[in-house]
């Protein structure tokens, strides 16, 4: 049977194979692909002993070894969320770096191994550092900080922490936590950091009018004000890392659309980031409330087009002298659409396709794949595709080839596994002992035992 893959005709992948020099750090990505951040949920975890949380496990190191493998694989590999506080977490099972973490010991050694594994064949490894702000389950922390006290509405039986407006002292502490995490990552051998300023996390909460109701100089009155906390974080980081260290950010198209930020303001945000010395911005869509995939029932082309329009507006607004590089992430699937996106942006971010196929960048650059694998419709939509990617990531981390969602039997098996997993999660309740992704229990092969799936 022919393996279903996205394709847009006979388009040469050559533009995707070109290297990319970052303007500030001078680092060079070996091609135009960026493995987008995906939370791994595989770090150490203890519900009670916070210092035992967030250490990269051997499974995580194995996962990054696979993404790092191959001379034409991912130019840039961005990790999943790295939390910067012991308690205010994106999710249990994330890796964590706080100012309590010393530049020695088990955590330091494991992060060092992770970096070395990812870089073995010349990829750049970039750690995504995060503060979730209001976007944290009440079971993980009942209280939190945000730009203002706008609580996230309960959803799917989950309730979220009650936020208060961050005080100046709290904001300064968070800036220090971000900066320390960046310094730590440089010391363990990472090439850079990506600030999570998308998907409704804390920095995005300051940027968006829906969550920022402040009236002080961090408030809603001007873009400059809403940017101020973001700028403080970037400056705090830049003060602690070397000039060769990449500082980048992930930004969100939805915040710009629905938070009422005009294209002019979006341009202002990006201009400020360029002035602050960011090497690149990864542009994506979605918040927790709406993972940006309200377009999920429309064709991939329409989705690709939606994010592309946003990227085009930003790139045009920044003008021909733009130095800061732009990556576009979200629904990019065929080589043709990736290559045409390079008219507006410099690189392409892929998340779910990189969980399904850790070698996908190599397969495209070397001309073996016309795009990502095409799952059955039910396997492509949220939330199944999100949980599937989590399960595939765990397979790779355990030394297995990931299952493929174009196969009906596999999908049926996965759906059963997801049901079991959701049941276990519900039983776990607030105990927070159940932190791993769904485990796929169907037939599977050892990693590398079968040919990489290309067709
Ligand atoms: C399992 C999973 C975990 C994710 N974790 C993160 C994360 O830690 N940080 C982040 O910025 N985005 C995260 N995302 C979003 C992706 O980086 C990406 O923006 C989104 O999946 C759209 O890209 P895609 O269509 O290529 O999958 C995650 C996505 C998936 C599927």
UniProtKB/TrEMBL annotation:
One of its GO terms (molecular function) is FMN binding. Belongs to the NADH:flavin oxidoreductase/NADH oxidase family. Pfam families: Oxidored_FMN. This is NADH:flavin oxidoreductase/NADH oxidase N-terminal domain-containing protein. It comes from Clonostachys byssicola. Keywords: Flavoprotein, FMN, Oxidoreductase. Residues 30-369 form the NADH:flavin oxidoreductase/NADH oxidase N-terminal domain. PANTHER family: BINDING OXIDOREDUCTASE, PUTATIVE (AFU_ORTHOLOGUE AFUA_2G08260)-RELATED, NADH:FLAVIN OXIDOREDUCTASE_NADH OXIDASE N-TERMINAL DOMAIN-CONTAINING PROTEIN. Residues 425-455 are annotated as: Disordered. Residues 425-436 have a biased composition (Basic and acidic residues). InterPro entries: Aldolase_TIM, NADH_flavin_oxidoreductase, OxRdtase_FMN_N. The keyword Flavoprotein applies.
């Amino acid at each position: 049977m022919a393996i279903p893959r996205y394709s847009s005709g006979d388009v040469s992948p050559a533009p995707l194979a070109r290297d990319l020099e970052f303007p500030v750090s001078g680092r060079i990505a070996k091609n135009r692909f960026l493995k987008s951040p995906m939370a791994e949920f595989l770090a150490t975890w203890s519900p009670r002993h916070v210092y035992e949380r967030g250490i990269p496990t051997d499974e995580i190191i194995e996962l990054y070894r696979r993404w790092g493998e191959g001379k034409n694989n991912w130019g840039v590999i961005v990790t999943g969320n790295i939390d910067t506080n012991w308690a205010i977490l994106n999710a249990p099972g994330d890796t964590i770096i706080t100012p309590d973490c010393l530049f020695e010991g088990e955590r330091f050694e494991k992060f060092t191994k992770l970096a070395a594994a990812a870089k073995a064949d010349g990829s750049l490894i970039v750690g995504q550092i995060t503060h979730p702000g209001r976007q944290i389950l009440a079971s993980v922390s009942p209280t939190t900080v945000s730009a203002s006290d706008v609580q996230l509405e309960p959803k799917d039986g989950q309730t979220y922490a009650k936020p208060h407006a961050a005080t100046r002292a709290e904001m300064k502490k968070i800036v220090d936590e971000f900066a320390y995490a960046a310094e730590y990552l440089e010391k363990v051998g990472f090439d850079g950091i990506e600030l999570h300023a998308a998907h409704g996390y804390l920095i995005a909460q300051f940027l968006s009018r829906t969550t920022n109701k402040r009236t002080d100089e961090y408030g809603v009155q001007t873009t400059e004000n809403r940017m101020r906390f973001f700028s403080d974080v970037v400056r705090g980081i830049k003060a602690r890392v070397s000039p060769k260290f990449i500082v980048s950010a992930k930004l969100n198209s939805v915040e710009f659309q629905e938070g009422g930020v005009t294209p002019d303001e979006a341009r202002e945000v990006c201009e400020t980031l360029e002035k602050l010395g960011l090497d690149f911005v990864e542009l994506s869509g979605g918040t927790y409330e709406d993972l940006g995939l309200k377009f999920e029932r429309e064709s991939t082309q329409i989705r690709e087009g939606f994010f592309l329009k946003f990227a085009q507006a930003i790139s045009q607004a920044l003008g021909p002298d733009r130095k800061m590089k732009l990556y576009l992430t979200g629904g990019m699937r065929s080589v043709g659409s990736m290559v045409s996106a390079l008219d507006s942006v410099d690189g392409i971010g892929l998340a779910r396709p990189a969980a399904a196929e850790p070698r996908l960048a190599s397969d495209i650059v070397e001309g073996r794949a016309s795009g990502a694998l095409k799952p059955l419709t039910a396997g492509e939509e949220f939330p199944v595709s999100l949980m599937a990617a989590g399960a595939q990531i765990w397979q790779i981390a355990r030394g297995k080839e990931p299952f493929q969602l174009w196969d009906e039997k596999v999908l049926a098996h996965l759906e059963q596994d997801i049901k079991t997993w959701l049941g276990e999660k519900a039983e776990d309740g607030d105990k927070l002992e159940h932190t791993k992704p769904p485990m796929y229990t169907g037939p599977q092969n050892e990693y590398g035992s079968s040919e990489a799936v290309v067709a």
